[in-house]
Amino acid sequence: MSRLRLAVVGTGHLGRIHARIAAAQEEIQLVAVVDPVEASRNQTAAETGAQPLTDYRDLFGLADAAIIVTPTSSHFQISKELLHGGVHLLVEKPITCSLDEADELVELAKSQQLTLQVGHVERFNPALTAVKEKLVDPKYIEARRLSGYTFRSTDVGVVLDLMIHDIDVVLNLVKSPVEKVEAVGFSVLGDQEDMVNARLQFASGCVANLTASRVSYANQRRMQVFTPRCCATLDFAARQSSLVEPTEEILSRSFSAESLSVEQQQHFRENLFTELLVQRQASSLEVNAIEEEQRDFSLAIRDGKSPQVTGADGRDALAVAHAILQQVEAHQWDGDAGSRRGALAMPESPHVLAGPDHWSLDDTVIIPRKAG
Q: Which H/E stretch holds residue 170?
């Protein structure tokens, strides 16, 4: 079968990574890289051998598929035009700014019989894939995704920048409707929220606590998943995971700590994680998650099957992200009588005004704007 003719639209930091990886894949022919910035597109073209283009509309007839790695605010218009032109798409997360836009892209891809994949790359991380089959019916999930301020993706806040990765993983594991969302957050370096803690409650009874920060002095991308039969600790940064699996004696509640002798108590203190709560490292493959993501995209196009992360998946993650953002904005830091509300609540700031002077809600999107 002929190679997939692929283009990368957007040659910023992540776009260059996508282009370099795509250029090295046997099943892909990287035909073009697109960016309005001449130096950026020319540098990426020189590194990959692809044709540099200024306008994504020049891809019609040249590329079978494209990876969209542009600012989130441009995802919808670019994706819509390319889908109308018959181009399969892998759109970096978040899929769009609004749910209406996401719904339109999902329906358009369906009507055009085109693949629409969303770049929630942690689905392909070995830390998750090594243990996923064990994570049946999760009941409690704790996720922490922390980084320093990179000065990239500043058109969105930390929820759409970082937390949405964990939202997608959690939704994929739990497979149950979200019934309640609670969240608080702070803006530190601009008008967007930079630190957020969210609590999701699902119809299945699962509870997920998610923390994301892009103003942290320590980097971390970790998640713990508790199921009725095991606990998994996932380190997405190290691409490693471990499992704690209780013995059947523990699971059946037949183990009695109260009936142990002093000698037995001492023994199990020293051997708790080898004999009762058996801990082991999960074996994982040394793979590049973005490479696996691109390979899944190519395979979905070739075989006419759904990719692992569909457009609908991206839409659902966006819906939960917006629900979190709405709760962040609704929080009143001083109670009903106070004036500090939402993410813009730094103490004693004379420039922070409460309420709608800072935020506008249009059913699905929270749009930040400066007061005054």
A: helix 164-174
